[in-house]
Amino acid sequence: MTALPETEAEPEPGATASGPPRGRRTIIILVAAVVAVAAALAVWTQRSGKPAAEGPEAGFARDMSVHHAQAVEMSFIVRDRTQDKPVRLLAYDIINTQRAQIGMMTAWLDGWGLPKADPAGPMRWMGHGGHGGTSLPADGSMPGMATPAQLAELGRASGRQAETLYLRLMIAHHRGGVSMAEAVLGRTGNAQVTRLARTMVEGQQAEITLMERMLGERGAPAV
Amino acid sequence: MSENARPNAPKNTPNKGKPAAGKATAAKSAAAKPASGKSGGKKPPQRKNALTERQTPWGTIAFFTVIGLVAAVAIGFAFTQARSSADGAKIAGLVSKEETNRDHVQTSVKYDSTPPMGGAHDPLWQNCGVYTSALRNENAVHALEHGAVWITYRPDLPKDQVVKLSAKVGATAYTLLSPYPGLDTPVALSAWGKQLKVQSANDKRVDEFLRAFVQGPQTQEPGAACTGGKATP
To answer: Minimal CA–CA distance to B97: which of B113, B76, B121, B81?
Structure first.
């Protein structure tokens, strides 16, 4: 009979705790499970290599392909305009490296099932106003790109004049390319993109140093 | 014993008022006591828990709800991905044609569509970019083979639309723009084996066509250049 006061006292709070709160607890667990699943899915899509059409990875792949294509074009032009071995060798190197990298970036877009073109314009993934001290051209074009007039000038120049013009244009081009590669490194965790962008930063910086030395050897002022 | 306890549980659940709950639990503990006398008063609330669980299968409900939500999220996600991908097949009014002739010829070619959307062509491709006078079909078709989209417009297209198309082509790699006298619509977009004719440069299908077919799956020579060819009309 000593147990009786206990049983009378205990079930009263027990009754309220075992009825409705049980359903409420289940709902809380359920909501938590859904949130966890959604979060896991979001993280998975971010990291598992299926970037968005408007994301930095796709924007970088598209814009850097265009940027590289101009470096290839300028390098072909200078090889037609001079017989100078070191400049022709540098141009040969840039043609092969950057053309192959265009292929890699195109393959990413193919693999991701994303468009190769963005009719809304280039550089939107980088945002205007600059990043890491880089300011973007106000017209939304890519940093370091030569103008059609500069390309035409290179096509008319020859010998030493063509070499120095090419070196000056390519130094500016590489600087712009490095800033774009650095920008994507600050915006993606995608391993493929990070790896290629890092080699671009290092490779092009080394070539800028080389080209500055080559300019000096040709008696041209540094840029 | 469980037969006795069962009718009590439903009575308990809706009763939130203390006096009623007190009455019900008092009756219940009296019924439960003779069986579980030794272990005292801690048992009845536990037993009640087990019983309510059996009545409402919360676990099963939670399980299927989570499964259902995961499926809904996955389907929604797949749908979003499909929408953002480069799928041109859904563009209304798109004309597709099998273009198998890729011969290089120095002569002029009679094409069976206007503007041409594939076929034999000149060895020299037309460079991408904005042109203000008509291009030679044979060079432009070679650019299509390289994955370019050729936007053509009737010479009477309003100036503001020409300006809009020029800006678009100027900022989009692997595109060409040129007037095309005798065109049967104000604007036509052509890729290799793909064509779309629209009434205005402001038609939203212009961008859809570019997203789908600039270096798209119809490209005959992926990776081929749209520079280094013919730079003038």
So the answer is: B113
Window 92-121 of B: residues touching A by CB (8 A cutoff) are: none
The verdict on A199 touching B (C-beta cutoff 8 Å) is no
CA proximity to B218, closest of B79, B82, B89, B83: B89
Which architecture, in CATH terms, is A54-217? Up-down Bundle (1.20)
- Asked if residue B109 and residue B8 are part of one domain, the reply reads no
- State the DSSP H helix or E strand holding residue A111, giving kind and residue range, or none if neither: helix A85-112
User: B108 and B18 share a domain?
Assistant: no
Q: Is residue B133 part of a domain?
A: yes
Residue B40 DSSP symbol: G
* Claim to verify: residue B47 and residue B78 sit in the same structural domain: yes
Answer yes or no: do B9 and B29 share one domain.
Answer: yes
User: Within a 10 A sphere around the Cβ of A192, how many other Cβ atoms?
Assistant: 17
Inform me whether the C-beta atom of residue B74 falls under 8 Å from chain A C-beta atoms.
Answer: yes
> Chain B: nearest CA to A51, how far in angstroms?
10
In this complex, the residue of A10, A37, A141 whose CB is nearest that of residue B45 is: A10
If asked whether residues B80 and B53 sit together in one domain, one would say yes
CATH code of the domain in which B136 resides? 3.40.30
Opening angle at CA A212, ends A208 and A218, nearest 5: 140
**Residue B230, domain member (yes or no):** no
Residue of B15, B23, B25, B53 to mutate for A, most A C-beta atoms under 10 A: B25
Instruction: Determine phi and psi for A2, rounding to 5 degrees.
Output: -70, -20
Which chain A residue is nearest to residue B88, measuring alpha carbons?
Answer: A115
| Residue B159: count of CB within 10 angstroms of its CB | 7
DSSP E strands, chain B: 95-96, 129-130, 149-153, 175-179, 187-191, 194-198
Same domain flag for B208 and B111: yes
Residue with tokens 């077919």: B213
Total domains present in chain B: 2
Instruction: Domain of residue B118: give its range.
Output: 95-213
Which residues are CB-contacts of A160 (< 8 A; sequence separation ≥ 6)? A82, A84, A218
**pLDDT tens digits for chain A (223 residues)?**
444 444 444 444 444 445 556 677 777 877 787 788 777 776 665 555 589 999 999 999 999 999 999 999 999 999 999 999 999 999 999 999 999 999 999 999 999 999 999 999 899 998 754 444 445 666 668 999 999 999 999 999 999 999 999 999 999 999 999 999 999 999 999 999 999 999 999 999 999 999 999 999 999 998 8
